[in-house]
Each structure stands twice: as C-alpha cells, then as structure tokens.
DNA sequence: TTAGGGTTAG
C-alpha cells in the first residue's frame, strides 16, 4: 500500500489530484494517524508546480501538531514563491513554537532572505545557526555565504568563507560569483586564480560562469581567453549556459566576431538566452542589421523572442538611429503576446528623442501604463539638450527633482540648455539649486588592459606610476590637435571656474588618461581598448576621433551603453549616441 | 523525502 501511495504522489500533476489524494487520506483516517504521508502530500502541494501555496497553507492549518518537516515544506515553498518574505514570517513563527528547527529549516529561510534581500533577517538566522550548533555544516555555511553576497554584504560573505574549516567547490563558486555580481570583479578573478593555483581545485561550469562574468565587466580579454581555452579543454562547452557566458564575454571585451563564431560553432543546443546574448552583443556594437537578422532567425529556429530579445533588437535600432524599425518592433510586441515593460518604453523614448521627435517621445511617456522612472526622464532631458528644447527640458527636470534625483548630470543638462541660449540668470539658478541640494557626482573611471594587467584611471588621476608620462603625452596630443582646429567643448563643464581650468577638468577625463597610457605602453599600430563606467563625454569623443587619425590607431571605447570604434578620425557610432 | 554555487536587459 505504501508503494501505491508513493506512486500516486508521483502522478499528481495538478491541484485536483492533490485534493483527491487528501480526501483519500481523510476518509481512511490516515490524515491524522499517518503523519508521514500527510507531510509528503503537504510538501508536494507547497513545493511542486502541481501544487498551490494557499491550499498548502490550508492543509497545514488542519494539522493538529505540525512536525518540523511540515513547517519546512511551507518555508521551502514560500521561499521559492513570488513572496519570499512570507517564508521569513513562517520561519519566525516556527522559531516561536514547540517544533524543533533543523538545518533544513534554516537553509530554506536563508534562501528566502536571499530572494527578499533581507540582510537583517539573514544575520538573525546566522546567529541562530551558531547557537543551535549547526555552525560546522558546510552546506549551510555555503548557503549563508551566498545569502550575504546576494544581499550585498560581501564583507560578511568573505568572513564566512574565511572561517570555513573545509571548503568544497560550491563554497568557492559562491564567493567568486558573489564578488563578480557585487561589482568587485577584480577580486573575483583573483579568487578564481587562487582557487586553481593555490588550492589545486578544478573549476567547474559554475566557477567559470562567475569568472567569465567578472571578465565581461572588466573587459579583461586575456583572462577571458584563458578561461575560454580551459572551458574547451575540459569540455565545459557542452553546457549551453557556459557558452552563453563566453559569447557575452567576447562581446563585452569588444570582440563581436569572436562572439559570433562561438555562437555559430556551439556543440550544444542554443537556448533563448543564447540568441538574446548574441542579439545584445550586436546591438552594443552598433551592428543593427546583424542584430535584426538574428532576431528574425531565432523565430525560424523555433525559439520565440521574449521581452529581452525585443529589448535587444530595440536597442540595436536605437544605436543605429533606425527610428521606424524601432517603433515598428515596439508596436509588434503585443502581437507576440508580450507586454512592453519600462525598459522597452525607455528604449523607444530614447530612440524618438535622439531623432528629435521630442513631442512623440513625451506622448509615449504620458501614455505609459506604468509610472515612468528616472531613466526615462533623463533620456528625454538629454534629447532636449541636443535639440535645445527649453520648455520640455524644464518639464523633464521638474519631474526628476520631484522624483528626488540628486544626480549632477540632470542639473548639468538643464544648465546646458539655458547656456546654449545664453540665459545666464537661469544657469546661475540651476547652479544655486545644485549647491543647496548637495548633488552627487558619480565618479568617472576607465580601465585599460595592457599585457594582461588592468590599469584603472579616475578623472584627473595622478596615482598611476607613469602619470607624468601620461600627462606629457596628453600635452603632445593637445598640441597636435590644434592643427586640426580642435577647441575644447568647455560648455559641458559646469563649474565656477575660468575657461582654462575648465579645459583642464575636461582634459584629464579618465578615458583620455587611459587612451594616452595605451599610446605610450603599446607598440605602434596596436589597437587600444578602453572601458568606461559612464557614457563617454562629447569632448572625449571628439578627441579620441582625432587621436585615431593622428596616431593611426584603432581605439575601442566601451561606455555604459555601447561600443565606440574609432578609426581614421571616425567613430562606428556615427556620432549618434 | 525535502539542502549549497549559474548566462541575456534602457
């Protein structure tokens, strides 16, 4: 009979099956007197896709004395539901009750904390784990480490890792991925190397994913290539997710063709994310026709585009100025049963704005079914600056202030609109507002990889060992550029300083420092590749175009939004960005 | 009977 109950459980594929089985248990008296069966039923209802959480809760409420396993089933089910905070509440009730809380209860509750980004609760569970004597449990420690990383407390994650008596590969993976996702990619790569070289551990699929993601962020091509050959040697490229990450890495390191060849030569099956990754890579590089071609191909290959595919395709149109194609794509989303989200609206508003169709962009914002976010108003404001639309710029700025924006760039844009009409009183007013509001400036920085070493520069940086040579090179560049009629775009600097100082502020932008360092530290003709955390500034764009011509170098700059490939005085973005 | 680490996005 036990066997038949278990096989019936296995066959439950919907809630009505579960209800039938429950009725059977109730009628035969087993619901009360055979608690292990009831627990199995509850677990199925709470955790599997056949079940239903509110129904599971109703089963739970009928239990006279719920066991630890009954509680665990509920906490586990809620932890993976769209409302993970409920799992934390249930766990708290459990802790207040007579039932023993075991390592599994803690594990499920921690999972919920990770999903709900509940740092305080994670800390509380941590101390409970220590008090209960579960401390040495490696699985629990790894979960703990992972939760700390996911809620953004990397220091605690590292502490858990350091204090682990025994560390298996999952522990290393959790910290490598945590560092990579927590904007500490350099440390992620260092840990990855330490794991291999010092501990002699063999990275697996999950390890390389963390390491590749770190390389993508840093644009660390040399390290990325090494990981790619390791992947091939170890046959980890039979895993689709790994291949997706390799494609992404090459794309973000500036090598579209390499990304495409990995995509074309995959030995394993392509999934939706594979297509999306490749589309996004083409979009980032301004290769709109290839992105759109792939978008069509995926449907033919039997993979239906999702919201990310559409966003990638829209973004491709955006970067290439294909306004009509973009609008058509946006409108066709609903035909596929997809509802545009705020990012799709953001993309199409940006697209129209850049094309100077400000009114349409504004109308779209007004007709959106959801609340427009900061990025949307920033796009519109940027377009207003480009096309000198004071009225709409004021409107967008007002919205941004209402939304609590304290971002320097938002004020600077408005000020620039006024400045272009020589409305100095208004410029002064904006400056005053900035002073009052204590606006924040996100520091700009750039990376460049030379001989496998990553060099980081901050605006006006003098920390690099070769900073004197770098500044001397910039002086030389400046001198040479004068012959091409270069005049610094000082209007984009908003500081209460003289014209010459303004020029200096501009002239030592991190991307210029990185390019200058590239020129002095690599041999003639070698392409230079730089990565910047913010959008490239207008003046740097002009200067780097000239450098590519004067020094006959191909220079690739990845900024926050896309790639710029400078060659012989031209940029692949066609000055449209 | 149920545990830990994973790819794409304005």
TrEMBL record:
MF-aspect GO terms: RNA binding; zinc ion binding
SUPFAM superfamilies: TPR-like (SSF48452)
Gene3D superfamilies from the UniProt entry: Tetratricopeptide repeat domain (1.25.40.10)
GO biological process terms held by the UniProt record: RNA modification
InterPro entries, per the entry: DYW_dom, E_motif, PPR_At4g14850-like_plant, PPR_rpt, TPR-like_helical_dom_sf
Domain DYW: start-end pairs: 485-577
Superkingdom to which the source organism belongs: Eukaryota
Calcium recorded as keyword: no
PPR repeats: 137-167, 168-203, 239-269, 271-305, 306-340
Keyword annotations of the record: Repeat
NCBIfam families reported for this sequence: PPR
Stated family: Belongs to the PPR family. PCMP-H subfamily.
Protein's UniProt name: Pentatricopeptide repeat-containing protein At1g34160
Organism for this UniProt entry: Ziziphus jujuba
Gene behind this protein: LOC107410324
